[in-house]
């Protein structure tokens, strides 16, 4: 339908009245092929035009790509202006619908170009920050489930700052190739740092998988890399301290020039089988500090919050690595260690407070105290302990987790059953059936096991070997 002689036949009042009518009355014509048509979802503007190919009359929806394209969002004045524009396009021999499709294609291409530009601007540093914010930051969901890493990605950030960003940090993430990743990994393997290489490999793989899921990169450069072939598989430690080594340790600790709290920490790991992160997260149950505040600090420091109740002889861990609560019965031997710590107690809630007293001491600090005292003179580090070999034992280097493994071995040697040992150490139960149907934590059996362990440790600590130096230890 072409233009009629009479245009602008409608008034705003007529349009308003029409749009308020119930049902779908006949279209309202303004002249020049401009109509207002009522539909169930509202009133919309149309232009009646002939198809340039077939000559058939067709309804042309106006403002089709605008979600607010109906009346009253688009007024009578808006519709007349748009109608004049469309008739002007038609006068040039162009079908307005074809023109609309062309414009839509141009907009799609512009969006695609903008997306490619966005991808071009995302560097490896940017990708890491997004990954850290969304997946590594520790947070508690409304359901109570905790997600992210306990240190909120602090270790990963430190590793990337030292070993990744200097190689590929400023590269566009989508341009990183397999060769670029291997350059980062190989730099560590060349220096003999296999464990660092393994950690970087795992974190880089997670980061690039995150980027692929979020369409921040078009392809994963690590998709075909096999961890075992590139960095090898981690070897499972099996180091435990023998009974004689525990005796030697009791002899060496007083002369190792460690803080009194650290000496107690060694014995508490042996006496409870706890993880070092759990020990550093211990608080005094009677401290009276808001637990939510303590939990927030524990999350930041990457430790597991726990509450030591000396009168009750318990240490309660509400959140553990195995995902279930755990209450440790404190033997008389363990109580003595906590009593010594209580004598050193400061005005804060933490059993092992930091120097500032605002939180727990860093777990790395304790680990370093032990490793710094298991070196040779050639391995002495500047501005660190001079007692470099004070804690050297015949079986080789040992770690806090080796003490936890030693706890289990001592219990087993005393005839304590494996399922009770698993409960004492709060191991994740491998059998899904047992996890689901057997809820008994064997508290009484645990208490007896911990008491027996404490008696054995007291016996080993009292039967101290003669004073020894590292040369004699190596000759033993």
What does this protein look like?
The chain has 476 residues and is an alpha+beta fold. It has 3 domains: 12-109, Double Stranded RNA Binding Domain (2-Layer Sandwich); 124-230, Tyrosine recombinase, N-terminal domain (DNA polymerase, domain 1, Orthogonal Bundle); 243-475, Orthogonal Bundle (hpI Integrase, Chain A), CATH 1.10.443.10. It is built from 20 helices and 11 strands. The protein has helices at 12-19, 76-91, 96-121, 124-136, 154-163, 165-168, 178-190, 194-213, 227-230, 243-252, 260-272, 276-280, 291-301, 332-343, 363-371, 400-413, 418-424, 432-437, 443-462, 470-475, and strands at 28-31, 34-39, 42-50, 57-61, 70-71, 139-140, 146-147, 282-284, 306-309, 314-317, 326-329. The strands form 3 sheets. Strands 1, 2, 3, 4 and 5 form a 5-stranded antiparallel beta sheet that branches. Strands 8-9-10-11 form a 4-stranded mixed beta sheet. A hairpin with a 2-residue loop joins strand 2 (34-39) and strand 3. Helix 17 crosses helix 19 (443-462). The radius of gyration is 36 Å and the shape is elongated. It starts with 11 loop residues before the first helix and ends with a helix. The relative contact order is 0.07. Residues 1-5 and 463-476 have low confidence and may be disordered.
């Amino acid at each position: 339908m072409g233009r009629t002689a009479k245009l602008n036949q409608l008034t705003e009042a007529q349009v308003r009245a029409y749009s308020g009518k119930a049902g779908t009355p006949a279209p309202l014509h303004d002249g020049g092929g401009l109509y207002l048509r009522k539909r169930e979802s509202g009133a919309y503007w149309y232009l009646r035009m002939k198809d340039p190919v077939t000559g058939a009359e067709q309804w042309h929806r106006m403002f089709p790509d605008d979600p607010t394209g109906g009346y009253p969002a688009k007024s009578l004045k808006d519709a007349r202006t748009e109608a004049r524009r469309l008739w002007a396009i038609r006068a040039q021999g162009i079908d307005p619908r074809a023109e609309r499709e062309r414009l839509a294609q141009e907009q799609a291409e512009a969006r695609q170009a903008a997306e490619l530009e966005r991808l071009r601007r995302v560097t490896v540093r940017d990708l890491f920050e997004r990954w850290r914010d969304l997946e590594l930051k520790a947070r508690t969901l409304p359901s109570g489930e905790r997600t992210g890493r306990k240190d909120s990605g602090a270790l990963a950030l430190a590793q990337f700052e030292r070993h990744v960003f200097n190689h590929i940090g400023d590269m566009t993430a989508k341009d990183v190739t397999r060769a670029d990743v291997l350059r980062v990994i190989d730099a560590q393997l060349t220096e003999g740092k296999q464990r660092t290489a393994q950690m970087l490999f795992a974190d880089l793989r997670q980061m690039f998988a995150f980027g692929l899921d979020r369409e921040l990169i078009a392809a994963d450069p690590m998709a075909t890399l096999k961890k075992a072939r590139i960095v090898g598989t981690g070897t499972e430690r099996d180091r435990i301290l023998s009974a004689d080594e525990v005796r030697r340790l009791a002899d060496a600790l007083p002369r190792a020039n460690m803080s009194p709290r650290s000496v107690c920490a060694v014995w508490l790991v042996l006496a409870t089988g706890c993880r070092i992160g759990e020990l550093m997260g211990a608080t005094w149950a009677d401290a009276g500090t808001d637990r939510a505040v303590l939990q927030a600090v524990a999350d930041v420091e990457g430790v597991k919050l726990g509450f030591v109740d000396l009168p009750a002889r318990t240490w309660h861990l509400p959140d553990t690595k195995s995902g279930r609560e755990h209450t440790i019965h404190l033997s008389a031997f363990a109580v003595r260690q906590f009593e010594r710590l209580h004598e050193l107690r400061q005005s804060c809630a933490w059993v092992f407070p930091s120097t500032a007293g605002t939180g727990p001491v860093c777990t790395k600090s304790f680990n370093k105290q032990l490793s710094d005292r298991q070196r040779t003179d050639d391995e002495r580090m500047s501005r660190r302990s001079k007692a470099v070999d004070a804690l050297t034992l015949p079986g080789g280097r040992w770690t806090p987790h080796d003490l936890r493994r030693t706890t289990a071995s001592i219990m087993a040697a005393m005839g304590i059953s494996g399922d009770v040992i698993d409960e004492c150490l709060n191991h994740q139960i491998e059998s899904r059936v047992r996890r689901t149907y057997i809820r008994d934590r064997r508290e009484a059996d645990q208490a007896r096991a911990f008491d027996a362990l404490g008696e054995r440790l007291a016996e080993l600590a009292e039967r101290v070997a003669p004073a020894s130096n590292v040369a004699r230890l190596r000759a033993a």
